[in-house]
Amino acid sequence: MFKKVIIYIPLLILIVGANTSAFAQRYFGVGIHVGGQHDAGDLTTFYPAAQTEPQNSAIFGVAIRLSIPFFFIRTGGDASFTINKGKVLEDQANVGVNHYNVKYTMLPLYAGLQFPLRDRGAFYLGGGVSYFYGTGSVKLSDGTSQDIDATAFGAGFLAGMQLHVTSSFSLYMEWIYVDARSKPVITTTGTYNANNYKDLFIDYSGHRIMIGVMYYVL
Questions:
Q1: Which DSSP letter does residue 24 get?
Q2: Dist CA 126 CA 107 (whole Å)
């Protein structure tokens, strides 16, 4: 029985290698992408009763990808830019916030499994962590403004697909969901904060959709 296993293992490796040879040649890639996030800095996690007009953000980033058959590591960096500020439409007196503007840099580190689509590309999914450094401003309901400077770590999931255009270039699309909240960073003026301590934290959580092009160095 052991001898049969020894014989079959090299044969299985040859078969898998033949089916994924074109896919396995792409080991290390660097990509650029654009995308967006809806509801960056979501205030309803701070005060669920608030009625808000969510902030929308554009995302520009760089992806660095290390892959071997059926496994990948994905890192890089993303920067968000505000499309429209978030606004509190109702309960401003209780929340103590009029509108807010949150921008951040995200450094992700994800790993997981990938599945070749013959020699045309791959589908992949995994999990990991992200580090956030955010800046911006919050206008309080008394008319004053406070600057934001908040860091956070978060965990999340990634799913994506890439299609090979040439032997070196691929198109890719990714969805990333991250759950990440900072410590309280500013003091609001609403009745929700009755003790005048720092109470407003920054919620970086949300869904991110990105599309880009990747060049494989190896």
A1: H
A2: 16
31 torsion bin: left (phi>0), alpha (psi -120 to 50), beta (else): beta
Q: Residue 54 region, left (φ>0) first, then alpha (ψ -120 to 50), else beta?
A: beta
Which residue type occupies 44?
Answer: T
Total tally of structural domains belonging to the chain: 1
Flag residues of the chain having pLDDT under 50.
Answer: 1-24
Of the candidates 93, 97, 94, 79, which has an alpha carbon nearest to the alpha carbon of residue 42? 97
SS3 106: strand
Structural domain that includes position 75: 2-216
Q: Is the dihedral of CA 198, 200, 205, 211 positive or negative?
A: negative
The CATH number assigned to the domain holding 35 equals 2.40.160.20
Q: Residue 126's CB: how many other CB atoms inside 10 A?
A: 18
pLDDT in tens, 15-61: 444 444 444 458 999 999 999 999 999 989 888 888 999 999 999 99
